Amino acid sequence: MLIIGCSKGRHLGKAIAEHLGIEYIELEVKRFPDNEIYLRYPKGVSGEDVVFVQSFYGEINDALVEVIFAAETAEDLGAKRLILAAPYFPYLRQDKRFKEGECISLRTVAGVIDDFFDEIMIIDPHLHSEKTLSHIFKIHSKKLTADHLIAAYIKENIKNPLLVGPDEESYRWAKKTAEDIGAESVILEKERHSGREVTVFFNKEINAKDKNIVIVDDIISTGNTLIETIKHLKQAGARKITCIAVHGIFTDNSLARLSETGAKIISTNTIPNETAEMDVSKIIADALKKEK
Ligand code: R5P
């Protein structure tokens, strides 16, 4: 087995290979002047099980084209099995036609991955109504989770925590993590008006006074869910607030806007950024160990 660091997976590829004690190579990825992607393997992959580590942040569509080129080339060069290890994978939300005429992008992207890979593994996939990866991909798929990293971080760093989930979908992260570490939790309600606008409600009174509030969610994108939640918690008397997410995407200058609230922001390194205090490389390595 060989680990390939694609352009958005290099922050994890080497560490994954080290955990497994196997070879790591970095894919050579360049741009032609007209922005077309140039890609080259610096050494042969013939007869190998090849693991592509690629996360999807920033120019996600380019990242997708890159792994497709990489997979097709590896197969052409004689690779045996192609595994996509995606710390963060996009396009999982549009799983139906919400409005007439829309593209069901989840279906299209899954079809492309099925065509080029033998297996996919994703950490805490941001799914909408479809909850099972095997209903999305025809190839073998694995849902990995960073649950235990979040639980361990809270246990180690935050005394007397009250875990808050900003919406029903965060139940899995907030309530379950609270149970794992024997802490209290509360799940709020959220109404989403658009990709950027949300309203968060308290469905019961919560006693936030003197508690170390930890808001746990799977993803921070525009940051508006957290900013709205922080506002309500402060009104309820909360002083010290930490926000923990698996995936820190941080669009719309949200990291700066969140920092202005005074809350501490922590994420894993599925996407590299300054908040990434929890390392997911071992989660992927452990999953790959079973494939060797
Ligand atoms: C629910 O939709 C998710 O768990 C997150 O709360 C949401 O995706 C965060 O998005 P944003 O940061 O744009 O509010």
What binds here, in terms of ligands, is:
ribose-5-phosphate
Rg over CA atoms: 20 Å
Examine the secondary-structure arrangement and name the CATH architecture of the largest domain.
3-Layer(aba) Sandwich
Terminal Cα separation, in Å?
7 Å
- Helix fraction, binned, reads 25-40%
Detail the poorly predicted runs.
Answer: none
* Anisotropy-based shape: globular
Coarse structural class: alpha/beta
Placed side by side, the strands forming the largest sheet appear as: 2-1-5-6-7-8
Number of helices: 8
Beta-strand level of the residues, as a percent range?
25-35%
What does this structure look like?
The protein has 292 residues and is an alpha/beta fold. The protein has helices spanning 10-20, 60-76, 105-116, 147-157, 171-181, 224-235, 254-260, 281-289, and strands at 2-5, 23-26, 28-31, 37-40, 49-53, 81-86, 119-123, 140-144, 161-165, 184-187, 189-192, 198-201, 212-220, 240-248, 264-268, 276-278. The strands form four sheets. A six-stranded parallel β-sheet has the order 2-1-5-6-7-8, with helices on both faces. Strands 10-9-13-14-15-16 form a six-stranded parallel β-sheet, with helices on both faces. Strands 3-4 form a two-stranded antiparallel ribbon. The model has no long low-confidence stretch (mean pLDDT 94). Ribose-5-phosphate (R5P) is lined by residues 166-167, 169-170, 198, 217-225.
